[in-house]
Amino acid sequence: MKIVITGAGGYLGSVLSLFLSEHGHQLILVARRDLDFALPANASFARWNGETSGDWAREIDGADAVINLAGRSVNCRYTEEHKREILESRLQTTRVVARAISEAKTPPHVWLNAASATIYRDERGRDMDETDGIIGEGFSVEVCKAWESALFETELPQTRRAALRMSMIFGRTAPVFGVFSTLAKLGLGGPQGNGGQYVSWIHERDCLRAILFLLQHETLNGPVNVCAPHPIPNREFMRVLRSTFKMPIGIPAPTLAMKVGAVFLRTETELALKSRRAVPRKLLDAGFQFEFPHWRLAAPNIVGDEKN
Question: Is 190 left (phi over 0), alpha (psi -120 to 50) or beta?
Fold first, then answer.
């Protein structure tokens, strides 16, 4: 397939492009700045500003698929300026991709757009799937809702669309793994808050495999949870990680301490304290098989990769 990946300059774009290249696909990687990783085989680079059409948009005409990963990082303080940037970066890029597809003489068969499992409410009592999951409230949820609306608002009858409601992705070079692993190795990997909040997670390899699966399975559309089938409480998540690093100590991080620390680290506690209990019902029903369905299997594999 010829696949155009917009917003390809981040962590997920780098590992996804290598994965798809290894599977023989032709790639056009689109980003605002030069890539900080080597172009994989069968890949070329195009620049965009994320707001207007340009040479990059011509690559969409005749492409088999588009994957849009663009959006400002949410790892920041939610000031009014940052909240505006978080929202607008997602809406503008999604809409400019929609415009490029609508103007293509031969539009792509499928468009996968990044989204987030944080769209669901803070939930500890039951799983949240694409059919029965309850949408939450607050700034992050409103961003997710608007983001998905932008994906589906344009009529594109020849292009199947799916919103990738992704959980936290854990792999050797994943930024979030770097944070959690550092805490665990320093003996600070105890429960965060009261530890009862659920962690929705996915191994990097399963995330990449799920994206390829979505490209290939024409029955999958609309919102799709891209997460492991077994979310677990934070206290258990951290216990497994500490055990994997053979660290016997795990100092807890009470909610108040996390709120104070978040101010100094210029981030938000929601990233660690919100309970996300998403499950990948659509993927499972379509026959997708996870290599790492449980965190107790995933953590040793990732840590082993890090050590190697």
Answer: beta
Give me the domains of the chain, ranges plus CATH numbers. Answer: 2-170+203-226+278-291 (3.40.50.720)
Compute CA 141 distance to the chain's CA centroid, rounded to the nearest angstrom. Answer: 15
Q: Nearest to residue 302, comparing CAs of 252, 240, 249, 229?
A: 240
pLDDT at 305: 66
| pLDDT digits 0-9 by tens, 127-150 | 999 999 999 999 999 999 999 999
> What backbone torsions phi and psi does residue 41 show, to the nearest 5 degrees?
-60, 150
CA distance 35 to 13: 10
Classify burial at 95, counting beta carbons within 10 Å of its beta carbon; exposed 0-12, middle 13-18, buried 19 or more: middle
Q: Report the C-alpha gap between 116 and 211 in whole angstroms.
A: 14
Q: Give the DSSP H or E segment for 241.
A: helix 234-244
Provide CB contacts within 8 A for 170, sequence distance 6+: 176, 177, 180, 201, 202, 203, 204, 298, 299, 302
User: Among candidates 151, 142, 29, 143, which has minimal Cα distance to 101?
Assistant: 151
125 Cβ partners below 8 Å, 6+ apart?
none
Rounded distance between C-alpha atoms, residue 121 and residue 274, angstroms: 9
Q: What is the mean pLDDT of residues 203-224?
A: 98
Select from 221, 230, 118 the least CA-distant residue to 167: 118
Q: Would you say how long the chain is, in residues?
A: 308
The pLDDT confidence band at residue 98, using thresholds 50, 70 and 90, is very high
Instruction: State residue 125 phi and psi, 5-degree precision.
Output: -90, -30
Task: Work out whether the CA dihedral 270, 290, 223, 277 comes out positive or negative.
Answer: negative
Q: What is the pTM of this model?
A: 0.95
Q: What is the pLDDT at residue 257?
A: 85
